[in-house]
Amino acid sequence: MAAATTGTGSRSLLARRLQLPPPGFHTVMGSSDPVVMSQNVSKHPQELPSFKPKLKTIQVITKDLIRELIIPQERPKPCLIIGEKEYERIKESARAPAGVERWDRLKTLRARQDAAFEALKKAQIEEQRKAELEDKRDHRRDVEEELQQEEQKLLQRAARMRLEQEEDVRELNALFLNAKCNMIRDKQVLEKRMIHKELVEEEKRLDRMMEMEWEKGMEVQEELECQRKQELIRARRDIVKQMEQRAEEQALRAEELYQEGQRQLERLEQMKREDRKAWEQKQERLKQIRADIKRFNVESQRLKDQERERDRLEDERVLEQQRQKAEREAALEAKQQQLRLEKEKELAQLRATQERAQDWQAEQDALRAKRNQEVADREWRRRELEKARKKAELEQQLKQDRLEQVAQKEQYLAMQVEQDHQEFQRVLRAHQEQLEREKLEREQRELRQRAHAEYLRRQIQELQQQRQRERAALMAEARQQQQEVRQRSQRLAQFRQQKLQEFRATGIPDKYFALVECRARSRASRAPS
């Protein structure tokens, strides 16, 4: 039996020697492909010489030729050779991080997330402020464009008024020209009558012709007068229509300002409602967070209870295993004792039979049996001692493992409790900081809203004051224009009187002068209306 044990040990030692890698190399197990790592690798893997395995061949001899056939073999598994430093680095990176290191990494990651969230919030606030400034600039630009359009309209109106101011002078000159034409015509008629007294009939015919021409001229003049009156009526209607349109535009503009103010107030109300809704949603989120915290505490307590129950069941299972193991060992010991007794009985019977057959042989057999029995007894006692020692070591190891397991579990529970406490404190601090930030943002938003509302009210008030100033300026301009019209009328009257005097000083007959004066006065009396 000792020889068999020695043979088995030598074979296992030989197998282990055959499986060992060369000196300076490490073999990584646990994979389908072998990985051989050199301790001192001086060359790049690409620079290593390629090893081609020698192929097995078989020689086939036939009548006409001799051939060598390659015996197909399985492809060798690929190998990877890496250095010892790289192997240590891979082992270090494959190691699971400890609890403190994991907690530090988690805190670093959360700090980065909080920083990114703060940067995002600042960018959103900056974008909102830029949008508000852009809206203000657009509104101011619209107001300036509207003022420029009104100024251009006033300039066009003044230009039209200046063009209209020259019309009376042109009409008066037309009257003078018409009167001069009539006067020249009458003079020519009188001269012809004085020269051609003898041609009475001819003069009568000429008079009739001249009378007819005069009537035609009068008709043409009356038609021109009617056309001028119609143009004046149309011009008055256009002026009245423009004044009405101007009044309507002012009314519409005032209505638009009022509507704009109402819309601004509605927007302020909408913003208040949105703030109220956001506050309510925030309260709901706070309730949800409190409920989550409460549920988290309940879940933690439940997990702790489950962990205690699992520990109790594990203890019972270990005790049951130890009891079953003790029973199995006791049964095995009883069986071995029975086998030993049976073997002793067989040996006794064998000794008795051998003694009856031959005394000397019996003595020799007895001596051999005794020696064998002593060897067997020694081996049995050795095995029993080895089993007892192993059992004691196993019990000691189980006890040590159990103590270590309990210590690790207590340490894990302590770390878990500390982690839960720190997590709760972090969530509570984050929640408080979030509340503080939201309160600060709400106050800042309210300040901005109040400032914006005050700015809008001030802008609306400034626009109203500007409209009042514009209306006052328009009224002053209208009064000034009326004064200018009166002065212009006075100047035109004086100029018309001077022109009439100069026209009379030319020696025109009273008949034509009276006709021109009557028409000029009638037009002058119609002009102010």
Features:
single chain, two-stranded antiparallel sheet, 7 helices, disordered N terminus, mainly alpha, 529 residues, 84% helix, rod-shaped
Describe this structure in words.
Mean pLDDT is 74; it is low at 1-51. A hairpin with a 6-residue loop joins strand 1 and strand 2. It is built from seven helices and four strands; from the N terminus they run αββββαααααα. With 529 residues, it is mainly α. It is rod-shaped and about 220 Å long. A two-stranded antiparallel ribbon has the order 1-2. It has a two-stranded antiparallel ribbon with strand order 3-4. The protein has a domain at 391-465. It has helices at 2-19, 84-94, 99-165, 167-195, 200-357, 359-505, 510-526, and strands spanning 25-28, 35-38, 57-61, 66-70.
Q: What is the N-to-C order of secondary-structure elements (H for helix, E for strand)?
A: HEEEEHHHHHH
- Which assembly state applies to the chains in this document? single chain
From the spread of the alpha carbons, the general shape counts as rod-shaped
How many strands, which pairing sense, and closed or not: the largest β-sheet? 2 strands, antiparallel
**How far is the first residue's CA from the last residue's CA?**
150 Å
Helix content: over 70%
- Tell me the strand order in the biggest sheet: 1-2
Mean model confidence by pLDDT: 74
Spans of at least 5 consecutive residues whose pLDDT stays below 50 are: 1-51
DSSP, total strands: 4
Pfam family, one: TPH
Family: Belongs to the CFAP45 family.
Protein name: Cilia- and flagella-associated protein 45
Main location: other
